[in-house]
Structure formats: C-alpha cells, structure tokens
Amino acid sequence: MKATANLRYLNIAPRKVNSVAKLIRGMDVASAQAHLRFLTKRASLPLLKLINSAFANARHNLQATGSDFLIKEIVVTQGPMLKRRFPRSRGRVDIKRKRRSHVRLVLEDKS
C-alpha cells in the first residue's frame, strides 16, 4: 500500500532541498522524523511536515494502523523561478533568480 503527499512552490532552491532529501531516502518514518527534528538545515522543517502529512494520508485513506512505513521515494524537482532585478554599477541590471522546489513523497508499507 502506498501513500503520497506533494509539496509545491517551496521557496528553497532544489539543490538545498535535495541534500536533505538524500539523508532520509529509504528510512522508516520514525527515524526520518527524528533525523529531521534535529537537523539544522532550513529545508528540514518543510520536509518534516510533508512526512507527517503523508503518514496522516496513509492512516486516513488506507486505514493503516501501524507506523511501519518506509520512505520509498522522495523526488525534488525545480518549480517556477522568480526573476528579480538587482541594480549594478553604471545603470546596469543583473537578474536574481529565486528558485523554487516541488517535492513528491511516497510512503510504502514495510510488509
């Protein structure tokens, strides 16, 4: 049985979110939650909320009672970029690219 959750338009660059996602890929839910609670990266709190949401989806939609779920798949992709102007010398302009992320999480029952 699989339960999914999506996080879209996260205002953190995909490169930074993917470094946290690599740490918890393949873990069970309880150990991933413990790792993310004490991790000092900015992306850890949104990923912790996403895991809690996927676990709640599993309990509600699949009527799963135990906590024996693995993080089978966590995929971080790039969302739309916000482009902002940044003034430079002599009247020139640089473009600041504020990158966003989309995260898809799939939990699967151990048995």
Structure notes:
The protein is an alpha+beta fold and 111 residues long. It has one domain (2-109): Ribosomal Protein L22, Chain A. The chain has three helices and five strands, in the order βαααββββ. A three-stranded antiparallel beta sheet has the order 1-5-2. The chain has a two-stranded antiparallel sheet with strand order 3-4. Helix 2 packs antiparallel against helix 3. The longest helix is centred in the middle third of the chain and has 18 residues, at 44-61. It is elongated, with a radius of gyration of 17 Å. The mean pLDDT is 94.
Shape: elongated
Question: Helical segment tally?
Answer: 3
What is the N-to-C order of secondary-structure elements (H for helix, E for strand)?
EHHHEEEE
User: Which segments are poorly predicted (pLDDT under 50) over 5 or more consecutive residues?
Assistant: none
Radius of gyration: 17 Å
Annotated CATH topology: Ribosomal Protein L22, Chain A
Cα(first) to Cα(last) distance is: 9 Å
- How many domains, as an integer? 1
What is the average of the pLDDT values? 94
Q: Let me know the CATH homologous superfamily.
A: Ribosomal protein L22/L17
Helix/strand-derived category reads alpha+beta
Strand content: 35-45%
* Major sheet details: 3 strands, antiparallel
Tally the beta strands: 5
Class in CATH?
Answer: Alpha Beta
Helix content: 25-40%
Biggest sheet, spatial arrangement of strands: 1-5-2
CATH-level-2 architecture = Alpha-Beta Complex
